[in-house]
């Protein structure tokens, strides 16, 4: 059996650079920035290094938001100044170096996503160690890797589809978090629906049977292990079962809902941007934001950029989505994955804040923007012809 060394390399990149598992490495290798620097050096010839007017405007906006944020938060050291802006640094960086680079190759991107999911699984296995103490280790995986890998796998073999499905749901289960499980359900429902509607033009297809069988199996396993979960950790049982059964009614959900009412009642305070903020802990971010941005990606955007800018961002993404939807009759693997991810993002922004929290998740935001800049343009055919090296299948 022939082993493709390049694909193994991309899996390793996803595992080391774009997953949370680096925190389990011994010092000094447990530094996210170290792996990013090594990635940039190793793949420097396959990335895009081009300074242009658009990048200048992005950097200018970053500086403005940084200055505004410094005046609002209680940062005391240069390290804290970096921490308050690191996710946005990664988004800007990867949105430009990934555009028209090897990361735009659907095969490369799929295997990087697989490595990322494996890293999430490994991190989840680490979280099992603390259950004996009746504690829960919150796992923040790379959220956008879930819809991207699911959508790309639907253009591969049955083996790839089943393998990806298992990875996504194993990672979701090991996350010990209700929100991540909901993420996995939403991403696979969107992927299956678009695939059946636009690719095979038939809702009752072979993949539908696999997806339904997978969902039914996941539900059966979920209820079968409830007693074992209760015996292992009462805290975990509360997070996975009691909170699921009382969606919208428990204290945590009521608190999240109240944050949106606060935004509606005090919207004048959030018309203009507040800039970047520093996550020091629960009390600190509540005092800083006032509307609990740490539990909602949407509220974080509103707090950081202001309502006016968020409206412009929403208009931009609606325009991008309409352009993608117009291509629904000619979807290939990469445009299909962009369409699925673009549909998934609004749900994820309201379901939690994990999609924006971690720096490795921010990298995938940059890659997603790079996909839009590379493929979602009116003259897509000419773009592909000019840059056929990043769409060529390995």
Would you kindly provide a written description of the structure presented here, covering whatever features stand out?
By secondary structure, this protein is mainly α. Helices cover 69% and strands 0% of the residues. The protein has 19 helices and no strands. The chain has helices at 5-17, 32-42, 53-72, 78-83, 86-97, 106-127, 145-153, 158-174, 178-199, 206-224, 226-232, 234-245, 251-265, 282-289, 297-326, 333-351, 354-357, 359-375, 380-386. The longest helix has 30 residues, at 297-326. The radius of gyration is 21 Å and the shape is globular. The two termini are 17 Å apart.
Strand content: under 5%
Range of helix content: 55-70%
| Major sheet attributes | none
Q: How many individual domains?
A: 1
Please state the average pLDDT score. Answer: 79
Distance between the termini: 17 Å
Helix/strand order: HHHHHHHHHHHHHHHHHHH
Poorly predicted ranges (pLDDT <50, ≥5 residues)? 281-291, 380-394
Multimeric state: single chain
Radius of gyration equals 21 Å
Judged by helices, strands and strand pairing, the structural class is mainly alpha
β-strand number: 0
Tally of separate helices: 19
In one word, what is the shape? Answer: globular
Write the layout of secondary structure elements.
Blueprint: H1 5-17, H2 32-42, H3 53-72, H4 78-83, H5 86-97, H6 106-127, H7 145-153, H8 158-174, H9 178-199, H10 206-224, H11 226-232, H12 234-245, H13 251-265, H14 282-289, H15 297-326, H16 333-351, H17 354-357, H18 359-375, H19 380-386
